[in-house]
Structure formats: structure tokens, C-alpha cells
Design goal:
The protein has helices at 29-42, 46-57, 62-69, 73-92, and strands spanning 5-10, 18-23. It is of the alpha+beta class. It is elongated and about 60 Å long. The protein starts with a strand and ends with a helix.
């Protein structure tokens, strides 16, 4: 992924100016990533979206998520892994 560069020129007492290029993320990159994430979440069923929301947006543990969804921790772990693979696949298309 290439990023545009932000050029800064600095001056000190002993030189006439030094240009420094700093890689910065394009302003629309974050918006694009959020839109892609939203689309990836939309392909999931309601219960699966809730699992991802609890785990990654509410910072719930697998055990806490399991209790809220009426599942076991092992079921949450396995389901989460499958959902993340599905979302990654969707995002890489």
C-alpha cells in the first residue's frame, strides 16, 4: 500500500533548509475502510453480527459473549474464527 508523502521543510542555524518527507495516510482511506467493514458485517446473519459486535466493539471476552448469546465459550471461539475468515475473504475480493 503506497501512501502519499507530506513534505516539510525545516530550518536550523547551520543550514539553509532540509526537506523531510513523511508518509501519511490519504484522508479518504479511513472512510473507505469503514465502508468496507460495514459491507463485510452486512453479509453476516444477525446473530453473527452480534457476536462480532460484542467481541470487537464492546470488548467482551468469549465467555461473556457466550453467556449473552446462549452459547458455550468453545462455540463462540469456533464461530468467531469462521466469521473472521469469511469477512477477510470478502474484504480481499
Amino acid at each position: 500500500v503506497s501512501m502519499p508523502a507530506l513534505s516539510l521543510t525545516g530550518y536550523s542555524d547551520d543550514d539553509d533548509g532540509t526537506q523531510i518527507d513523511i508518509a501519511v495516510e490519504a484522508p479518504d482511506t479511513e472512510m473507505t475502510e469503514l465502508m468496507s467493514l460495514h459491507q463485510a458485517l452486512d453479509i453476516l446473519e444477525k446473530q453473527d453480527r452480534r457476536l462480532i459486535f460484542l467481541r470487537y466493539f464492546m470488548d467482551k471476552t468469549q465467555t461473556e459473549t457466550a453467556k449473552l448469546l446462549g452459547m458455550t465459550q468453545v462455540q463462540v471461539s469456533r464461530r468467531e474464527k469462521k466469521l473472521l475468515l469469511k469477512m477477510r475473504s470478502f474484504l480481499s475480493e
